[in-house]
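TA notes. Do not distribute before section.
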Amino acid sequence: MVEIRKAIAELDPVWTRIRTEAEQAVVDEPLLGGLVHSSILHHASLERALAYRVSLKLASGEMSEQILREIADEAYASNSALGIAARADLVAVFERDPACHRFMQALLYFKGFQAVQAYRVAHWLWQEGRHDMAYFIQMRVSEVFGVDIHPAATVGQGIMIDHAHSIVIGETATVGDNVSMLHSVTLGGTGKEEQQRHPTIENGVLIGAGAKVLGNITVGRCSKVAAGSVVLQDVPPKKTVAGVPAKIVGDAGCDQPSVSMDHLLSGQQVLGM
């Protein structure tokens, strides 16, 4: 039995760690035993746990938890990339958010992580041509989490959305891998054209709280957008932009700003929260 558990842990160390944390959480706080068991310990995989958690949060009088859970289970079974992305997102939250001390926190309590996983199910539905169901999930994610991501938008993995309130990501937006953003960020459009009208955020970008990135522009890899900025033009890679409208104010200052979460310019000017 020990050898079997070791083999499982090696195959899926993220899920193994979550289960270990959950078992300790029940010991530390028995009153949460029901929640922890139903959300984590009752399930054989992270995918099944995510399907349960997402469906429970999004269920309403209009759509039952059972139907939503069947949809989510189908999505995870049909596309293994969803589970891989979820693990990358979870690790990103743990590594970048100093308020996150355990993997299970993001799964159980963090609406940014939960909203992104629900979006991933909606995006799968969109790709399958089931647009109305995708729109329904988008609506519920917006109502429940305060996060509005169009199901047609393309979002990479290793995404961390801290606090997550009032996030808006438009239909033709593209977000790369290992991107971090704070609350009240908008990736919006300009005009009414039906083609590409939203921004492309390349890998490793850090976007500060309240920043607005508008139109068919590109924020280059490993760049930083200061809090409260309004970005209307392309941002070169590894630069920092700030202001309304945003202008280049210096280099990014590190190779991976989205991982370091450093919101300072030259150690003095605050760019983030």
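Switch to the second chain here.
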Amino acid sequence: MKQTAIYPGTFDPITLGHVDVVRRGLKMFDRVIIGVADNPNKAPMFDVETRLALVRETFSEEKNIEAVRFSGLLVDLAHEHQAKAILRGLRAASDFEYEFQMATMNRRLDERIETVFVMAREDYTFVSSRFIREISSMGGDVSELVPAAVIPYLAKK
């Protein structure tokens, strides 16, 4: 049976840090489902359909990576795709507290689903979607921090 992990996030927009986590996740799992969260409370720059399209375009050549839209409980998405793990990236110690709380709550909801943390590559420890949005909105060059598919969308904003 193929081992599947869910990699959830808003991906507003997807960054090369996200791409790195997915690719490293594929070293541990046969398949990674990228769950693009539909959470209007976060007031994203891009609507969920655009974010989903950018993720799909980024991984269009990968057969064992799938992107899906989701809202609701992450464990429900894991059940839907028979995932045994939730994949999460950590950039710095500051990420750990929030991620630890989320992992603990998800384990409380379903103890059969493990959370696996992947440390960000040093090149991406400072990269966040929020920084990408801010730098891009002020005319800064983020082309070395995001997949090529993202650049035209940022330019339009």
